Amino acid sequence: MESFGAKVQTQKFEADTYDGEVWDLTNIIASIQPEKKKRILLAAHWDTRKIADKDTNRKDEPIDGANDGGSGVGVILEVINAIQKAKNKPNVGIDVIFFDGEDNGEPQGLASNDPSKTWWCLGSQHWSKNKHVPGYSAYYGILLDMVGGNNAQFHKEGYSMNYAPSIVEKVWNTADQIGYGNYFINNQVARITDDHYFVNEVGKIPMIDIIAHDPTSGDFFPDFHHTHKDNMDIISQETLKAVGQTLLQVIYEE
To answer: Which helix (H) or strand (E) is 127 found in, with range?
Structure first.
């Protein structure tokens, strides 16, 4: 991000985990066009899961997380790179947060040591309570999660529709207009607890989630989810382009 000319800072913090550990975590925050008062927040998580709890082999080993974590970071990096290289700039400023500790919640079927806490999304929980700039806000936010898989489909996620339905419609309509309607499906699905929930509920910034999932599958997520199959073999340049081009179009139309 610094090489693209962005202003970058880190937010270091400690967080308890579901299995009784204390982790040192870091949110990475960057900004371009700081002079613009109207701002859009882009986010993804940059951590990956420390166990492959949905796999049949090497369950206790961390996964690559090429899609679940890496793809969202990659798309945002290229969006910022494209904007910084472009002669014509958007009329809004962009802030980026790469959240840490999103993917360390308890495995399915395992009770946590404190059921009152949410063990997922540790970075967004911390940032939403401790913003990098006191009183920081944005016109809206867009979270990217698992946006690089082959044949991915993005349905209208429930919390996004609860908190920011107009932003969902803006993004999905834009995708359809530029030829990516086969990725952005006009169908509302259940709520997913992801980083955007805490940005909305605690941080009070309307944020939507572009996240790949399959509402017809028993697990709700693609079969690589939290397995060692989440590597570069399942990443599609076409999917990454569909999400990145849609994001750029939305930003430039503000």
So the answer is: helix 122-129
Q: What is the pTM of this model?
A: 0.97
Parallel, antiparallel, or unpaired for β 184-188 and 140-145? unpaired
Q: Are the C-beta atoms of 117 and 61 separated by less than 8 Å?
A: no
What region, left, alpha or beta, does residue 64 occupy, with left being phi > 0 and alpha being psi -120 to 50 degrees? alpha
pLDDT tens-digit series, residues 224-234: 999 999 999 99
Rounded Cα–Cα distance for residues 163 and 193 (Å): 13
Number of Cβ within 10 Å of residue 228's Cβ equals: 17
Beta carbons within 8 Å of 98's beta carbon, 6+ residues apart: 27, 28, 29, 43, 44, 45, 46, 73, 76
> What whole-number distance in Å separates Cα of residue 91 and Cα of residue 201?
27
Give Cβ neighbours of residue 111 (< 8 Å, ≥ 6 apart).
none
Instruction: Tell me the per-residue pLDDT of 149-162, one tens digit each, with 9 for 90 and over.
Output: 999 999 999 999 99
